[in-house]
Amino acid sequence: MENKSIPLESVLIVDDDKPAREALYEMVLTAGYKAAAAPSAESALEILARHPVELVLTDIHMPDMNGLELTAAVKERFDADVVVLTGFADSHTYEEAIGRGASDFLLKPVRLPELKARIQRVFRERRLWKEREALMEQLKKLSITDGLTNLYNRRHFYRQLSTEANRAERYGRVLSLLFFDVDSFKKFNDTYGHLAGDEALKSIARATENCLRVADSIFRYGGEEFAVVLPETSGEQAIIAGQRLRNDIDQLRLPISEEETAKVTVSIGVTEFSPGEEMERCVKRADMAMYNSKRSGGNQVQFIPPDE
After folding, report:
1. Domain with CATH 3.30.70.270 in the chain
2. Architecture of domain 154-304 in CATH?
3. From residue 165, how far is each of 8, 255, 307 by CA, in Å?
4. Which band of pLDDT confidence, cut at 50, 70 and 90, is reported for residue 3?
5. Quick check: 91 pLDDT over 70?
6. How far is the C-alpha of 270 from the C-alpha of 133, rounded, in Å?
7. Which CATH code is given to the segment(s) 10-135?
8. How far apart are CA 81 and CA 98, in angstroms?
9. How far from the centroid of its chain's Cα atoms is residue 24's Cα?
10. Where do the GGDEF domain residues begin and end (predicted)?
11. Is 262 helix (H, G, I), strand (E, B) or coil?
12. What is the pTM of this model?
């Protein structure tokens, strides 16, 4: 009766009474679900620790750990629903079971049609909840993600910079900011077309991700302008990172057709965050450093220290 491998959408029956446990096991199989069984709450927790199970059917009255205690433990430690079974019709017990996190409450003796209907409802509600969670996560991601490059967008840039600035101040860490802009991008679009321009921006985004650390956050700030937040990075280190990024993008060869490729360069501005300064001041400084790079001919890195 003990299952070695339990797939999802399966039911774990927990009852110290062997005949009752075996009867429920057969009913769950007849209802069309995978099943496993445990003679105690402790053994049920061991099974749950090894295998994902979506639904636990547990009796209330068991020695050592009872069904209500098991319900609380399952809800705290695992992603599983619990249906509590009892032979006593008691509103207080029902309220306590629901209060501990149970999804439903069934009176013994259990009839197959009712058991099947309850299991179906639990699984249906789980699926709806999972779909809703996935949708909310997708909407959240879309709200902070640039649709073309799949980088974080400008709105999320300010949130992330604020978070990193607060962390740097709290723990006395260094933090740097890097802005870069694609040189002569209007001319690139006029020459090769906007579709090629979009592909160029995507290639630049990927090159930037490959060049920098996992801890660094990359954003499409707007148009052909990008920003990078560099935690635990001094201004000198950020200049080195900027030079590496400038070189990597300079080496890109962007396919225009089967016979033709194009190249792009970027102007990069770097600054270091000064503890206590307003976030917008740091942003303006990085933007000015980038402007200085562009004004000096592009394809270079300029640095403005925080005291300027």
Report:
1. 154-304
2. 2-Layer Sandwich (3.30)
3. 43, 39, 17
4. very low
5. no
6. 39
7. 3.40.50.2300
8. 11
9. 38
10. 173-306
11. strand
12. 0.62
